Amino acid sequence: MRQLTVLLLLAAALTAQTEHMQSKLIIVDPGHFHATLLQKDMYPWVDPRVTVYAPLGPDLLDYLNRISLFNSRPDNPTNWALDIHTGGDPMAEMLRAHAGNIVVFTGRNRGKIDRILASLKAGLNVLADKPWIITPADLPKLEEALALAQRKNLAAYDIMTERYEVTSELQREFVNDREVFGTLEKGSALEPAVRARSVHHIMKVVAGTPLRRPPWFFDIDEYGEGLADVGTHVVDLVQWTAFPDQPLDYRKDIAVLAGRRWPLQMSQAQFTRVTGEAEFPPALAAHVHGGTLDYYCNNSVAYTLRGVHVELEILWNWEAPAGSGDVYEASFRGTKSRVEIRQGKAESFVPEVYVAGADAGVAAAAEHRVAALQARWPGLTAVKSGPDLRIVVPEKFRVGHEAHFGQVTNRFFEYVTSPKSLPAWETPYMLAKYAVSTKGVEKGKP
Question: Fewer CB atoms inside 10 A, N or C side of the chain?
Fold first, then answer.
């Protein structure tokens, strides 16, 4: 009996310890579907009861519908329980209640940094979707927020999912292998050493459900232009690949040289199809001409990063061609070879990594690198593809964009439990990233 009592006490203590370790999520105004992708799966360290603060309206209803679908799916259903508050001032109510220790922000981007700052001041960890800022005038606030998190021993992190894409990880590995790549060339304004292109689509299916976009998504003053929004991923990948684990100084290491912007033209019928709204709202009136919306979501930017010339292009199309989807392509030019991600028709619209311009010595070095990477990616191979080498990735490592949200969230929890484990380069990386994305947009404006 005494042994049973001791076992029961130990079990109770372990249960209490597990409960103590669990974090509680607070979701504020989930206006972007990324909020739901964070909850596509359960996490052992997260309490299944989540507190949600949002005005009653289509954004909240879309979020609730997607969580309901996750909870009711036949395979591996989630078991989220939502405590929903629909007051007139969600942010103020959230700060008063302090119903958890991690606050999640997605959706509207104008003013997001102010909400992040208020949350950090209240002692909350912050996991916020990109972008944190959409104008260079807010760079000092971003700097303040990151410094505040460090002082208060809190985790503050943005959701850089594309670092977890296997082809991005492999490109980083080969670019930083001197026997394969050599050293990164500087390039020039006419022939940049680094080029990258990202293509997204307005109409798409997410987690099995056609995507509804809120009308404010198309308000560039509220949500930002393409470079300020999805372009942050591309800027991040460039510096993460070219200068891994190295702190950057955005005041000294970056010079934004040129920018350009142009619109995607959307008809009223297209706008209605994706938003459910019968008319363009008054906030978009300045960009509506002859019944067509000029949606300024396309940008290009040229800049130098530690003297290396970089050129990026961020594009939005209406809908992907059949059999394809969003696209990311990137080329890094080294003194021995180019390491590229291609995603065209030849790749069946699936991203693939190539070592281009490889002589016999580079090809042998690439084979050696592939062998060294077997511990992480068993079955990885290199095959001849015309004049280049293609790095063949086993299908099991292509987990998909939606799965990356869970990977980021698990990494974030490491920083919640041990804020000092956040790498020293992450904070200057964020500042450098947002300096390029916001100043690039500014350069493109008339």
Answer: C
Q: What percent of the chain has pLDDT over 70?
A: 95
Among 254, 296, 193, 244, smallest CA distance to 437 is for 254
Q: Token pair of 217, please?
A: 């998504």
Pick the CATH number of 2-161 from 3.40.50.10170, 3.40.50.720, 3.40.50.2000, 3.60.21.10: 3.40.50.720
Q: Is the per-residue pLDDT at 427 higher than 70? A: yes
User: Alpha carbon of 251 to those of 33, 150, 188, 256: distances in Å?
Assistant: 34, 21, 21, 11
The pLDDT-based confidence of 10 (bands split at 50, 70, 90) is very low
Amino acid occupying residue 177: D
**CA dist 270 → 168, 275, 281, 387 (Å):** 33, 9, 14, 43
Q: Is the pTM of this model over 0.85?
A: yes
What is the structure's pLDDT at 21? 60
pLDDT of residue 13: 37
Domain ranges of the chain: 2-161, 163-444
Give the whole-angstrom CA distance, residue 204 versus residue 226: 17
Q: Is the pLDDT of residue 16 over 80?
A: no
Burial class (CB in 10 A: 0-12, 13-18, 19+), 28: buried
CATH architecture, range 163-444: 2-Layer Sandwich (3.30)
> 244-252 — which CB contacts under 8 Å span 24+ positions?
244/172, 244/176, 245/423, 245/425, 246/425, 247/424, 247/425, 247/428, 247/429, 248/305, 248/306, 248/425, 248/428, 248/429, 248/431, 248/432, 249/428, 249/432, 250/139, 250/428, 250/431, 250/432, 250/435, 250/436
